[in-house]
Amino acid sequence: MPDRLDLPAGFRWGAATAAYQIEGAVDEDGRGPSVWDVFVARPGAVRDGHTGAVACDHYHRYPEDIALMKDLGLDGYRFSIAWPRIQPTGAGPVNAAGLAFYDRLVDALLEAGIEPLPTLFHWDLPQALEDHGGWLNRDTAYRFAEYAGTVADRLGDRVPAWITLNEPFVHTVFGYAMGIHGPGRALMFEALPAAHHQLLGHGLAASVLHERGLKVMLSNNLTPVEPASGSAEDAAAAQAYDALHNRLFTDPVLLGRYPDLSALGVPDDIYGAVHPGDTDLIHTPGLDGLGVNYYNPTRVAAPTDPGLPFDLVDIPDVPHTAFGWPVVPDGLRRLLAHLRESYGTALPPITITENGCSVEESTDPDQPRIDYLAAHLDALAQAVAEGVDVRGYYTWSLLDNFEWAEGYHQRFGLVHVDFATQRRTPRASYAWYRQLIRVHRERFAK
Ligand code: FCB
Asked: Domains plus CATH for the chain?
């Protein structure tokens, strides 16, 4: 059986974070409010009323964090750019001080020998755009492409590859359908125009980036979907869920068409959002790499609640993370094999842009995290041995950070952060990952 050390030469080792989860400094240097600044102020929205106002204070402490990345031996660092730092109201003139922060960050990464891999949108939409409907408004897609051009003009000379969107599935469903993430709207399936407009924004931004000779990726949260039993009802429910979670996002980008959403009761034109020519705008620019964020498979049964076409059920008899997510490393191999089967030559090279787990703070040394990473990297190596083209792995996350609706309760970091003092302490998993990167690299140096 191939294992993680058999990953190919040139395989890129990385770690990932996102702006609102680590930066803090929400009122500094002209940053405008994002939907998350507004959402966290809603009573009960986030566990214990936590907010990202300070988070890891990375805005000021980035040199220390880059020193940790350098010591870890990372090839690449995935971070996100906060749109409200660049355009405080999501449109119009650029806020020079905000752009200058990412300019310094990129230079410091390059100085440390680490490739910057920015994500343009990781959920922190300028609130001013949300006031006009946010991603439910088609115009937001055009604003996004304009913002992408502005940032690329400044950083494109040093940053070769860009991720447009992070997890449009989670943002649409948690943010617009269920209301458990910012912007906190609970529209159920009528949220889906927000998915289409994000994809349209991706397509328009991809053209802008390609015109500048830059490479484009899109990262989604993908999950292998398994029916709870062999019954026809469970199989139909699993198919409906797969269309919503995975294919709604991957089909238009890779194939230029939406999957059949009729089992969800969603009209073909997604409530009038899809205009003639839109799927071409999404598909034609092409994708240089698919970013896969993998955490767990999803088991689906026929609905018990008549309001939904499926029921999500737990996967028993496997370990669960501190978050309660089932740990199924082989799900990653199955997901990658399924992508290759479904999309064939339309599938670009893959990068795992997130994978990791939260562990109870009291667990020392954090053996569950080491076990999680080791088993997922072995599964990844098996997928590569079976012929899937995977170029890199960015673990979530470098640091403990603001985990959205869970506040500071879920700790995903290779590095522990004491949020009272901002003290960073590398965990056992940090040392483990560092050693893995070193040994893998030495294999090919000889
Ligand atoms: C993903 C998000 C990321 C982080 C991890 C745990 O869905 O992209 O920001 O919260 O989950």
From this structure: 12-445 (3.20.20.80)
* pLDDT band per the 50, 70, 90 thresholds, residue 364: confident
Share of the chain above pLDDT 90, in %: 97
404 lines ligand 1 (CB under 6 A): yes
Mutate to test the pocket of ligand 1, among 20, 167, 327, 402 (most ligand atoms within 8 A of CB): 167
Report CA(302)–ligand 1 centroid distance (Å): 27
In 120-246, alpha helices (H): 127-130, 139-155, 168-170, 192-211, 232-242
Per-residue pLDDT band for 362 (boundaries 50, 70, 90) equals confident
Whether the per-residue pLDDT at 330 is higher than 80: the answer is: yes
**Rounded distance between C-alpha atoms, residue 82 and residue 31, angstroms:** 9
Q: Is the CB of 166 under 6 A from ligand 1?
A: yes
User: Cα dihedral angle (131, 401, 54, 202), rounded to 10 degrees?
Assistant: -30
Q: How far apart are CA 183 and CA 201, in angstroms?
A: 18
CA–centroid distance, residue 404 to ligand 1 (Å): 8
Cis peptide before 207 (omega within 30 of 0): no
